[in-house]
Write a structure and sequence with these properties.
It is a single chain. A 13-stranded antiparallel β-sheet has the order 7-6-5-4-3-2-1-13-12-11-10-9-8. The chain contains four helices and 13 strands. The protein is an alpha+beta fold.
Length: about 200
């Protein structure tokens, strides 16, 4: 039923010129901005200003990626990629840390215009992670399909990748980070495949 319900979400968020729309799309001050020290979904450090908060590391074989707290070194999320088997993810505070099939935790769905998105169950209810015309990738709650609670951003001066969080996300940062890096990597692979198709 959730997949059907989410067909009411707008698949493309185009800017408009009306004052009402501009007010609706305006976000409050970000709660947290995490800068990626490397433009990688496998190995990087996520910093708040100059302070490292999280590390993302992947074993050489590329089968397991772990999100850790930079200070205490606590495991916050683990993503497993297994050839011939479903991808899984796990979080210490969800399902007693047991592996969850990726397709169950981050459920694919189709929007009204035929575009693909993902449903994510969080502490604030069901959220929708979808492509965004301005932010590339953005996360919305079921209560407000217009204003994202998290999205990608790039600084104009350095083109540095950042993940922006807004109020309401503080209890599930790890889930949001994991969802973004998983979907972003899939998007990059698809884009590379498309480039290979068009190249002579």
């Amino acid at each position: 039923m959730a997949d059907v319900w989410y067909l009411s979400f707008k698949a493309v968020f185009l800017p408009t010129t009306t004052m009402d729309s501009q007010t609706t799309l305006a976000n409050p001050t970000p709660l947290l901005c995490l800068d990626f020290t490397a433009d990688s979904m496998f190995n990087t450090t996520l910093c708040r200003g100059s302070r490292p908060l999280y590390t993302l590391s992947t074993e050489p074989q590329g089968s397991t990626t772990e999100l850790m707290s930079a200070g205490a070194g606590l495991l916050l999320a683990r993503i497993r990629r297994r050839e011939g088997l479903p991808e899984t993810t796990s979080f210490p505070n969800i399902n007693e840390g047991e592996d969850l099939q990726l397709s169950e935790w981050l459920r694919p769905c189709t929007l009204a215009d035929g575009s693909e998105a993902h449903l994510l169950q969080t502490e604030v209810g069901t959220c929708l992670l979808t492509r965004h015309v301005n932010h590339r990738l953005a996360l919305f709650t079921e209560f407000d399909p217009e204003t994202p609670i998290a999205h990608w951003a790039r600084r104009n001066d350095t083109f540095q990748l950042s993940l922006i969080f807004y109020a309401g996300t503080q209890d599930f940062y790890a889930q949001v980070i994991a969802a973004f890096i998983i979907v972003e990597q899939k998007m990059r692979i698809a884009e590379e495949d498309d480039l290979m198709v068009v190249e002579p």
